[in-house]
Specification:
The protein has about 280 residues and is mainly beta. The protein has helices at about 110-115, 265-280; strands at about 10-20, 25-30, 40-50, 60-65, 65-75, 75-80, 85-90, 95-100, 105-110, 120-130, 140-145, 150, 160-165, 165, 170, 180-185, 190-195, 200-215, 215-220, 225, 230-250, 255-260, 260-265. The protein folds into two domains: about 15-145, Jelly Rolls (Sandwich), CATH 2.60.120.10; about 150-250, Jelly Rolls (Sandwich), CATH 2.60.120.10.
Length: about 280
């Protein structure tokens, strides 16, 4: 009989392709915003090969009440916001933007990448904020790839990049408002990895290469596996290896009122955000 402390996959969620921003394609788990607090959205951007002057981004748009986390695997983006923050996102880089009470934000292909074209691939997740933090001052953490902890197992079968949380003895450098796990992992065929979890945190696994076996279920490329509660999660590489994200965090357990780029707790707060944006006082 399986120990209650060992997690298993309780459900597997497929993805569908949607258009975002200026029209770029993303793979997004179906009904993501209702599935796994504190995460509101998980978008896999691409992979897509752009020709010269074909790359698309997301021009100026507002946010309030949550965080956006962008992680680039290939390509190069340029970010800027109304607080005066700006930066380039190259392969392996992370931008953790806490919108808080409000920012106007843009995410566009870097001019050099736009001119030359190439492979664009990455992720953006949205992390909800508790009511007490929704109107906090915005902040922006731009972390280059070489600053993020990367660790391998002694046998070289397991590779991990620790964006938030802990894995294989490495701990993230990014400061998060609420405790978040965000691990990018690769398992070679035959590899088995056990991830230690906070008992009461929600944990999910998104596969974007190969497949990963968790208990009696296999999470395939483009699928999101939602785990049961427990203290550990054991992941075994499929026949062709596995590449995936482990995402985790606490259940916020508060009402969610959502309208486009605004995520608050009540309809009145959403109407206030729209009004603030329309009259120029959001950011």
């Amino acid at each position: 009989m399986m120990s209650t402390n060992v997690r298993h996959i309780k459900s597997i969620v497929p993805t569908h392709v949607v258009l975002e921003g200026g029209g770029f394609k993303v793979r997004r788990p179906v009904a993501m915003g209702r599935l796994m607090s504190p995460f509101l959205l998980l978008d896999e951007m691409g992979p897509v090969n752009y020709g010269p002057r074909e790359a698309i981004g997301a021009p100026d748009h507002p946010h309030r009440g949550f965080e956006t986390v962008t992680y680039m695997l290939s390509g190069c983006m340029q970010h800027a916001d109304s607080a005066g923050n700006k930066g380039d996102l190259n392969p392996g880089d992370v931008q953790w933007m806490t919108a808080g009470r409000g920012v106007i934000h843009s995410e566009l292909p870097h001019p050099d990448f736009y001119e030359s074209g190439g492979l664009m691939h990455g992720f953006q997740i949205w992390v909800n904020l508790p009511a007490k933090d929704k109107m906090m001052a915005p902040r922006y953490q731009d972390i280059m790839s070489e600053a993020l902890p990367i660790v391998e197992s002694e046998d070289k079968l397991i590779w991990a990049k620790v964006i938030a949380g802990k894995a294989l003895g490495a701990e993230a450098i990014i400061d998060t408002v609420i405790p978040i796990t965000y691990i990018h992992m690769r398992l070679k065929p035959g590899a088995i990895y056990t991830h230690e979890c906070e008992q009461d945190h929600n944990i999910m696994v998104y596969a974007f290469g190969g497949s990963v076996n968790i208990g009696q279920k296999s999470v395939q490329d483009g699928e999101l596996g939602l785990s049961s509660p427990g203290e550990s999660l054991t992941l075994e590489a499929g026949a062709n290896g596995a590449e995936y994200l482990i995402l985790g965090g606490p259940e916020i357990n508060e009402p969610i009122a959502r309208y486009g780029p605004f995520v608050m707790n009540t309809r009145e707060e959403i109407m206030q955000a729209i009004g603030d944006y329309n009259n120029g006082t959001l950011a």
